[in-house]
Design brief:
alpha/beta; two-stranded antiparallel sheet; 9 strands
Length: about 240
Amino acid sequence: MLENYVNEDSEEEEVEEEQEKRDSVFETGSITVQKDGHFIHCLTVIGQIEGHYILPSRNKTTKYEHVIPQLVAIEESKDIEGLLIILNTVGGDVEAGLAIAELLSTMQTPTASLVLGGGHSIGVPLAVSCKKSFIVPSATMTVHPVRMNGTVLGVPQTLSYFEKMQDRIVKFVANNAAISADDFRDLMMKTGELVMDVGTVLDGEEAVNCGLVDALGGLSDALEYLNSQIEEGNNAVHDSQS
């Protein structure tokens, strides 16, 4: 009789765990998976990155107030050993996106990013913020100057703000990717490629060739990289304790 109760409790716990996983995917687009015995958290950044202003409900958004606490929890977790960021974003709030990217770049947890579909605008700093970045061949990335939607007062203070924000993005990308600041700025200010705008659209191979993204690859490549980094870290700890 006692064994039956134990089995029932165990089954109920498994059902609850599965429900929690489904709820997590539905609410935050994230899930923790097991790869070769290691727990890796997968977080998706899709649609527009929502910042200080709430976007219309019809828009697919990634809310930075949801993402930042998750990143802190992952960094402090004793169970999660790696983090995979999957990107398919058109961009969005510049400061919110850059805040997430800065946080990712300072994490000690092994991190990898994978660009699927698109990693446009502020999605570029997000892609390069991880320890290693991957992109599928069919994905694209749009590099362009900082711009604002809506009415912007054409005063010197506004232009100065744009320039400083743009400089922050250029510096961040140059510090976290194999592309130089000058080359990235050239991509940002290129004319003749985007209709009625300046900037550059890169496919997966072009993004790798110019040094913006580390490697062409897919999901298995990103997970394999994280697994190798986790193993390497574990071996280093073991050796130091020996």
